[in-house]
Amino acid sequence: MEKKKTDDSEPVPVIAPVDRFGFLKQEQGNSPHRFIKTRSSTNYEKEERRVTKWRKMIGAGGSDWKHYLRRKPHVVKRRIRKGIPDCLRGLVWQLISGSRDLLLMNPGVYEQLVVYETSASELDIIRDISRTFPSHVFFQKRHGPGQRSLYNVLKAYSVYDRDVGYVQGMGFVAGLLLLYMSEEDAFWLLVALLKGAVHSPMEGLYQAGLPLVQKYLLQFDQLVRELMPKLGEHFTQEMINPSMYASQWFITVFSYSFPFHSALRIWDVFLAEGINIVFKVGLALLKHCHDDLVKLPFEELMHALRNFPEDAMDPDTLLPLAYSIKVAKRLEEMKQDGEKAVAKPAQTVNPKMIKDVMEALRFAWSPSSWDMFLWSIGLFSSYLKLLRASIFGSKSIPISSSIVQKIGSSRPICVVTGVTSGIGKATAFALAEKGYHVVLVGRSPQLLSETLKEIKSKNKDAQLKSFVVDMSCFSSIFNFKDSLEKWLSDAELHPSIQLLVNNAGIMAISSRPTNEGYDRVMATNYIGPFTMTKLLLPLLENSSVPSRVVNVVSFTHRYASIGKVDKDYVTGKHFTTYNQYPHAHVYEYSKLCLLLFSYELHRQLRLKDDSHHVSVIAADPGFVKTNLMREYPKYVSAFAFLSFKLVGLLQTPDEGARSSVDAALAPSETSGVYYFGGKGRTIKSSKASRDPKLGKQLWETSCGLFDQLQSYND
């Protein structure tokens, strides 16, 4: 017998090691199979005793379950909280969720939905299948049994409940269920959860606008402030809200990127006791890490909230702490308060209203309130200039109604920052309508995803790409530049962009330093846009058609104290020397710097190339009703909105975005001008903003900061 030639034989496939749940083993990281402990013989014997107890409790095929539950509910609750044996988990989940009854009452329905019905969500489901538990052997193979089963369950539900259809987070829920039961069983358990067979219906987690997610996040935020007031105050100061870190907790019930063993224990309790355990576990995570979280600045805080330490997520540590937190009564009170508020308006003045009024009065006597009063004069001044220009025959600059120039067969590409709300979102909508391929840049992944879906829902032809970028974090901006270039290369697009809209901006009533020690308002409103522009300028210059930078400025610059434009002023360190943070002054100064930069960049580009290949325009949206003033006392912002509405100067985000869109679509030779009031109209900005000497000094200071930041990121 001839021996086989080993060098000609096919290579033997290497079988990757997996844990007892079927996940590929990894040494570190956020893989969902962390904390899988090796089981000693003692643990094995203990587990066998637990299985025996459970089998006696539920009976053959679950026949004794309801009887035992009626007789000894406290025993059942205690045993579930200790963890359901893994070999019985699928059956017990069906029993405690009520899905077994639904299955028996609806024979043949699942097959009908899978085989004979079609779904409008099929392409979305196919696109997302490979993203569900990608490190689990059951779901790894493309078009394998796991992916086919997941597709069938999600498609069936999207047909069963067309109002909900399919939302991405549902994949992790269905995937988790499929690891413990058949397709049909998993489908009916999904129905039981969303339709409320035992507990409150959860379909609102996946309906348009995610109404139940919004409700739970508001309640969670209130619980954090009541149970951990110091942490709640720190979150307020750092502008952190639960949508930035807790949305997936509710949407997937911790099945997304949470240690799998811990997720299973949470699901045991969730199916038995309902949504309250999600609140409890979330609060327990924050409580466990409380002392560390209250010390962290924004960037580190966001990282910590998305990457909890391993000991915090160990179920033997986490769940006992969660069980000790009482939330049921308070959640019921919040629910009743919400129902009363909907049923009828409040008849009496409540303590919170009094507190809000007192905060507004204190603010009215602060030095910054006078600065903000001057802003209104600045706004009236801008409109007077607009009126004077119209009377004396100043012509508006014509704008295009659509995009005409393409880069080969591709659409021109524009980058818009701060797109998750307000003017930025409206600008992104409008530019997508005009034919741009819009690159959405925002800080919150959740809000960024919602914005992308919202634009797509209203404009199916929109071409969009999103990137998570924090404009106050310079490493984030540098990383974005690399990611953008990689995307252009991978998508086989021309290595250029045609438009950059620096829209992102914040107002803050307290000083909050960045990692570099810069004031966060100055970092977000000026240094960030300067850095973004410098990094993307080569892509703008590489465009085969004229390109443009649009900087979104503000009428508040008219009353900004010039002071200096040295490093201490530009980084905001100078403002830390004040007894009280001069928030109004910092904001108006940041906008003056952005305007000085706009004009100086225009001059620098003209010196380099007088062909107007890259043009620069400043766009002032006026006074717009957005969440920019969210940190200010409630009645201060309400009074401001009402006052400007009465005189006809309050604009919607769509109206405010007109100046940015006009600037984007202006003729290529237009550069170094100040757009205001929409309809292609321009006016003169303040004398200080047009000072070339001051602009040159600011340019040199900013370039020095940029070089320093670049050296840190090399």
From TrEMBL:
Residues 83-274 form the Rab-GAP TBC domain. InterPro entries: NAD(P)-bd_dom_sf, Rab-GAP-TBC_dom, Rab-GAP_TBC_sf, Rab_GAP_TBC_domain, SDR_fam. Signal peptide: none annotated. Its main location: plastid. SMART domains: TBC. PROSITE patterns: TBC_RABGAP. Keywords: Chloroplast, Plastid. It holds the Pfam family RabGAP-TBC. It comes from the Eukaryota. Transmembrane segments: none annotated. It is found in: Plastid, Chloroplast. Gene3D superfamilies: NAD(P)-binding Rossmann-like Domain (3.40.50.720), putative rabgap domain of human tbc1 domain family member 14 like domains (1.10.8.270), Ypt/Rab-GAP domain of gyp1p, domain 1 (1.10.10.750), Ypt/Rab-GAP domain of gyp1p, domain 3 (1.10.472.80). This is Rab-GAP TBC domain-containing protein. It comes from Brassica rapa subsp. trilocularis.
